[in-house]
Amino acid sequence: MTERQKILVTGASGFVGGRLVELAREAGHEVFGLGRRPVAQTPFAATDHASDYASVDLGRVDPADLPTLPWQPDAVIHCAARATPYAPRKAYERDNVAATATVLAWCAALGSPRLVHVSSSSVLYRDGDQFDLTEDSPVGPAFANDYARTKAASEDLVREYAGSWTIARPRAVFGPGDTVLFPRIIAAAEAGRVPRLTGRTEPAVGDLIYVDNLAHYLLDLAARPELGGVYHLTNAEPVEIQALLLEVIDRLGLEPPSRDVSLTTAMRAATVLERVWRILHLPGEPPITPYGVGVLSWSKTFVPDRMLRDLGTPKVSVAEGVEAFVAWQKPRL
Question: Which structural domains are found in the chain, ordered by start?
């Protein structure tokens, strides 16, 4: 077990940050969480830890209004971000870039504690298949979407931090509480809008990471200031993406896709819809986005050597993670 720490977690009301807070407390760490949601809308409201949480919008807050912490943190794990595949560009700039700048300034005022910045593997994405990506693979100058572009910009800010830092790039986080990956597929399946995408000679494969594995890795990184630079965090077991999603749909008792759509047709439709949403400033998200089509259709795999060498093997397999997610999701349908 790592030494007990005092840890500040941003994004504590979100999927990853919330689970991180829970597991960190179970491990004996003292944790203070920040999140955009009021405390009454978080799991912390029903516990003894409501006073260890503050509702703060880091992309909008005046630095003078940041909360006073009960102690000097040993580490800050910055999970807060705009992680949806579609949003107004200003929202990504505010929640991914401006918020990170606020956290960095706050860290400097707190004595430059160890900083673990949760970025995204999407900073590397290009159209088409990408195999065996490493921490040294090039970032930019073109990006898959505004989310990836602003996460790359946030990484640039972190690299200028005077204290000890590391950048974590998780790939496709899933598990109980998921708000991004599986829920969109499930909603589309319930509405009968999930097709089988065709046009590949070989199935698209990709890496994922179960949320508990990610949380444990982030805690390990927070406790080890000697580990700097970038870490790609995955379950180290690539899977066939469409096959996995079809399995989840089936195990949840939802109707399987009944029509075939080519990758080219799906991408054209998604591109048009996203443009219409932006031009007309329509609320919510388009039914499909080019990024979403790419997730289902293009292979993205990562070399996990650095993670495995320094942080060890994942504790929960993909199959075990899917089992936990299905058990959590099924009563909610």
Answer: 6-179+206-240+300-332 (3.40.50.720)
